[in-house]
Amino acid sequence: MAVVDLSPLSVRRAPVRRGAQLLGGLALYGASMAMLTRAHLGLDPWDVLHEGLTKLTGLSFGTVTAIASVFVLLLWIPLRQRPGIGTVANVVVISVTVDAVRAVLPDQHTLALQILLLVGGVVLNAVATAVYVGTRLGPGPRDGLMTGLTARTGWSVRLVRTGIEVTVLAVGWLLGGTFGVGTVLYALTIGPLTQALLPLVTWRTGRREEQQH
Q1: DSSP string of 136-160?
Q2: Farthest CA pair distance, the chain
Q3: pLDDT (tens digit, 9 = 90+) per residue, 11-33?
Q4: Are 68 and 50 contacting, i.e. CB atoms less than 8 angstroms apart?
């Protein structure tokens, strides 16, 4: 599979279309998070942490997600990472959307419906990730932390990402976050699914649309 260039593109290139794609992808990402939390079969590592913090503080899932995102952004400072418009939108849109969808989507306790929400949530999460990352308008807070640590330490992306996710998963589980089959399914499938989808939605320098301002 060809390597997809995900380096930042100027916001002046097709701002309306890329902005719409960014917001749509982030909204879908928040919806997928809500689906996974209502399935109660296991969350991705960061959401295990978010759920644990929600139980600890009593704040809404979206509020905790936003606060955690801001804290992660503070860690960018010593790493000399620069946020983009996509970084800021990531914090706001996902936190608002996850709470909005959770408000209308009830908890599921029937196994068939739980499995449906789990699988649908994982697939939608992959689609959403490819869609918003493909705009090349700046990484999310957690992705920026990963790339920043990789650049500063010289360690591999795989090692840094694994270290971060194992850490947040452990802390989240200790705080009462949901670890389960969904966590394993997410870990095994999210990478391949996202990689397969990225070439379909990523903006490229040579695209005619990018010349429209």
Answers
A1: -S---HHHHHHHHHHHHH---HHHH
A2: 50
A3: 888 999 999 999 999 999 999 99
A4: yes
